[in-house]
What does this fold into?
Amino acid sequence: MSCGQRSLTSFPCSQCGLCCQHVQLAPETRFLDRGDGTCRHYDVASKGCSIYMERPDICRVDRQYLMNYAQQYSWDEFVAVNVKACEFLQAGQVG
It folds into this structure.
């Protein structure tokens, strides 16, 4: 983060694991697909990432924002868009 840039609030993740179970939906995350749409690093038992501390940049919401979206959206707008995607997955609206 550059000097003078405010720190970002935490992303309100419910840790449901659904984003990790649908990596086939986005071109940016398809490389993580183990063949059934689920991330190859997803741990079903914990509903978490088996490589969390070393996870790819695409899996880091704050880093994605700073690298690719900070010029287009405020952090709050970016969070709102991502929360909508979470709600879509949680509602089971993915085929």
Remarks:
- The radius of gyration is 14 Å.
- The chain has a mean pLDDT of 90.
- Residues 75-90 form the longest helix (16 residues).
